[in-house]
Amino acid sequence: MARVGLGDGWTCAFANDFDPLKAAAYRANFTDASEHFHQGDVWAIDADTLPTADLAWASSPCQDFSLAGARAGLTGGRSSAFFGFWKLMQALNAQGRGPDTIVVENVVGLLTSHEGRDFAALCQALADDGYRFGALEIDAARFTPQSRPRVFVIATRRPADALAGPSPFHSRAVRAAHAQLPDALQASWIWWGLDAPPARNTDLSALLEPDDAVIWSSPERTRNLLALMAPAHRAAVEAHVKSGQRAVGAVFKRMRDGQQRAEARFDGLAGCLRTPRGGSSRQTLLVIDRGEVRSRLIGPREGARLMGLPDAYVLPGSQTAGLHVIGDGVAPPVVRWLAARLLEPLTDSKSASLAAE
Length: 357
Fold this sequence. Notes:
Layout: H1 2-6, E1 15-17, H2 20-29, H3 33-36, E2 37-39, E3 55-58, H4 81-94, E4 101-106, H5 117-128, E5 132-139, E6 149-156, H6 172-180, H7 183-186, H8 219-227, H9 231-243, E7 247-256, E8 259-265, E9 284-289, E10 292-297, H10 300-307, H11 319-327, H12 332-356
């Protein structure tokens, strides 16, 4: 999905994933996949087989950084895939053909994992190989109606001072993570000046399938869902019922004080889509219309739209597989904004430098 976001102005020279479902999705969506896609463990890749590129993008598995996971950090079995990736970057740099710009994307928990030590280890690895770096926390909700905050660490060896400045994406968590870094790493920090996008003009309801084209939960299941709601959430539902107007809410089931609760939001946003192993992959939708309350599960195509993917994007055939691919992705509109305002100017600065030489 990062490739979708980067757009046609970029050529993908190499891609890798060990997950067979995501590998199949990549092959289904990119006709040139046979030329450059590798399915397998990143640790098994030989740097000598890699092409030279301007940009390297790493979206390593996020479970070990997630608040819902064990918070194993960079030593965790899945997120340690980052160091498999970094081993390749080090080898390319030793050969004099490492990428000038690197993006590391992950969940916000990366900033606080192990009291900030994991983030510091990432920054140290970048600094040791001559990169300057900075982090941005961007919520996909600024682009598409899904609450999906993610951290993007952008590292470069290109001149970057012209791209520094204030940004709404210098969140409190980013500022706190920077403040915890040793002075030597702070000296390599860039406060990327990424501006905010225009206000989003779509909400959750605009991306849903027609009511007559979906499968609704039984009335009993809907009643059971409402019974799980705390008084404040139930009151919000009742207020929409009394209004007689159509309202669409996203519902998550969570454990609160040892009890399972259903929590509804009617702010036009879906909650963060997750993979099936994350426990909340298929959010429940609550649709209130003319006093009637119905519920149903969100579908993979609707999830793809919430990620900002076009309907032409090919999804796996099964519901579970489709949600697995979607829940592990990065929102393409966020990548496009980042590319247009930071990544492409960095690449253009290299081209201008070569032309001057």
